[in-house]
Design a protein that fits this description.
Largest sheet of chain A: none
Largest interface: A-B, 11 and 23 residues
Oligomer: heterodimer
Number of helices of chain B: 9
Radius of gyration of chain A: 21 Å
Largest sheet of chain B: 6 strands, mixed
Distance between the termini of chain B: 28 Å
Structural class of chain B: alpha/beta
Number of helices of chain A: 9
Strand content of chain B: 15-25%
Distance between the termini of chain A: 48 Å
Order of helices and strands of chain A: HHHHHHHHH
Order of helices and strands of chain B: EEEHEEHEHHHEHEHEEHH
Number of domains of chain A: 1
Structural class of chain A: mainly alpha
Shape of chain A: globular
Number of strands of chain A: 0
Chain lengths: 258, 250
Amino acid sequence: MGLKLSLIQVGHLILLISEQIGGAAILLGQIFKRLIPPRFDALEFRKCLFSMGYKSLSIMIATAFVVGVILVIQSFVFVERYGMRSQLGWGAGFVIIRELGPVLLALMFSGRVGAFTTAELGTMTVTEQVDGLRCLAIDPISFLVVPRFLAMIISLASLTLIGNAVALVSASIMGEIMMDVDSHTFWSSLFSMLTAGDIFLSVTKSVLFGAIIAVNSCYFGLSTTGGAPGVGIAVNRTVVSSAVAVFVVDFFSTFVLG
Amino acid sequence: MIDLLDVRVSYSGQEALDGLSLHVSKGALLGVIGPGACGKSTMCRVIAGLVQPDSGEVFVNRCNFRTCSRHELQTMQRNIGVQFQNDALFEHLSVLDNVAYPLTRLTAMAPSEIEGRAMESLATVGLAGFENRLPNRLSGGQRRRVALARACITRPAILICDEPTAGLDPQTSRTILDMIAGIRYQTKSTVVVVSSDVVGLFSISSRIALVWNGKIIEEDSTTVIRQSERAEVQRFLDDARLPFAGWTWD
């Protein structure tokens, strides 16, 4: 009896996940359909870029700064033990640009922008504003989803590049304070080892993460049911599923792109 | 003008409309009554082209929603004004911008002309002077009136009002129904109104339809419906506390 119940629960969970992945995939298809040729609201796109990109700048810079500082504090023991002060810049750059920067900033972005987008679209859905748009023959995908999709990708990619730079600066400052590694040594070790491939990987990851967060947040927002409590549930699902998807995609992109 | 033929709609396996058929003539004002969750709102959404039926045919102005092209459907939708149950006002836009929104999005009219039309529409629903307020600064009745002004600003051929009086006091409810009747008189549009204010609805409608378990079980003039001996009609009208004995509708 207990085993049967567990199997039923597992079955329900699999169906739920399949439904969500399927729904998000269909939404992604609909987005691409409206991108070739581009059919979306340019004014809404500009508004989204401002609210998602520019307004996230301060929190992203603060996060990136702390990431750089913590990285140096954590690596202090190993750098001291193996006498690798001259390689600190390369080590910090490698970790920040290829991994920590894109992933941590994506999680932060998901919490701030993804959750907000789901709440916004979810509220519009349950209060019939989305139906109101459809009644005016305004396509909600072109008007609401595509501008957010593009704005999230561009914003996250730009914020990741800025965040990487900020994290490296903070790591350099902390390296000088804690380990007496002068900034010239730090930056020369970084630039001697840094390749265009590292930057490419970082940007590629942030573009993929931005797309995932955008599709997730819009999908859960537009499929919200059940009034105000439903909006809360949708936001929760967005944050959790985006975090899981970011780690899964991070694994595969690192594996494939090196 | 509007024809629904044997329309079936289900949500997650549960039937919302179960073979509903309806005919609304051009220029008529059809009042729709029925108990909660019987399919009234779904019927409105089908007429507005927001819900695709599982089966059955929907004709609006001779355009078959099932077979028409996307462009034809969009053109038809632009000719249908809908006042939603939840107002569906854009909270970040002022009252004026909310009302003007359909014209801003759908027409190439000059901004001054759009503003003039929006002000005129607001005056029709008695909200002149409220144009700069945000929707969250309005009462429930005022929000409904803004939604009504927005629904009819494009002067649609068909106006659908889904529970425009829900949650309002009897006086405000009657005022809104009278406004709907006034708009229909001015614009000569075909109007479908779903409302729980049965007495108010009887006073403005040319015909009444009773929806029951996803079907229209009675649809006729107000006089005939009043005298119907069908058990469901009697039960519903009794529940709605209509004083039949000696009651005059004038």
